[in-house]
Amino acid sequence: MTLSHSMLAMEIVAPGGPDVLKPCSVPVPMPAHGQIVIRVAYAGVNRPDALQRAGAYAPPPDASPLPGLECSGTVVECGPGVTRWKIGDKVCALLPGGGYAEYAVTHEAHALPVPEGLSLREAACLPETCFTVWSNLVMRGKLKAGQKLLVHGGTSGIGTTAIQIAKALGARVFATAGSEEKCQVCKDLGVEQAWNYRDRDWSHLMAQAGGADVILDMVGGAYIQRNIKALANDGRLVQIAFLQGAKAEVNFAEVMTRRLTITGSTLRPQSEAAKAEIAAQVEAQVWPMIARGALRVVMDSEYPLPDAPQAHWRIEAPGHIGKIVLKVEE
């Protein structure tokens, strides 16, 4: 099909707060070998977008400078070598960037079919969170049935997804959150215990429960040593972000004597092949969880694309629960 030459997008005009997101007109991306162009219906809003906007998370050199790491929509163009998709297919996709726009480009192996029964709005919430959770909890953290998982930020998009995937795997799940209301949301998703980190010593309470086999943490800072205390022997701390800083004083004697593992990853800088392998595992293992109702999207709010600054205010505020999306296609 013939695409227009320009499109509406939201660009970051300078590092700063949400108000630096401004509408602009930019060229529609062209697909390279193995890539597809998606007419974006919805774009997910994630904390890495806010970090990029603030100047703390630069996109890879070959990625779009526009924010947006996941979307749903319709395939409108296929580059040379594309074999899986055809024009008109409905997909949701992990993006290297560029989701805050009418069109986005990604590798064909990083797109997945919209799960049956889900809307495009819901499907836009899946790629970034499911890829992140599966690759860190299972591929790196080796979480298995019967093991105990502690999820920090249990009502974030990552947190609600991690709780449900872990439950579907047969793990015992514990969580922290910032209010009693949020703790109740975690309990409704199936956690055994949810602790308000503002007034409960979750590290001590987790240790009392036998310690966590795996901890999924996005806080960092002072949490790192507390996480070590909360791990069971042979436990694994999986770090995916540092809301309180990437540096901490750690007692490595305890790591050695209790045979602990400290690991973690970021998704965006990984190779196309690595992301393709994650995508294949997510489709094989997580998509069936959605089909049988074991995993559902927890949605916070929706904003029109030009209201991306408001969406960023929302994701950085303490009250949001679940995923935030931008509606792009009218």
UniProtKB/TrEMBL annotation:
SUPFAM superfamilies (UniProt xref): GroES-like, NAD(P)-binding Rossmann-fold domains
Top-level taxon of origin: Bacteria
Entry keyword annotation includes Hydrolase: no
This protein's UniProt keywords: NADP, Oxidoreductase
Ranges of residues in domain Enoyl reductase (ER): 16-326
InterPro entries: ADH-like_C, ADH-like_N, ER, GroES-like_sf, NAD(P)-bd_dom_sf, Quinone_OxRdtase_PIG3
Keyword NADP listed: yes
The name this protein goes by in its record: NAD(P)H-quinone oxidoreductase
Species in which this protein is naturally found: Pseudogemmobacter lacusdianii
Lineage of source species: Bacteria, Pseudomonadati, Pseudomonadota, Alphaproteobacteria, Rhodobacterales
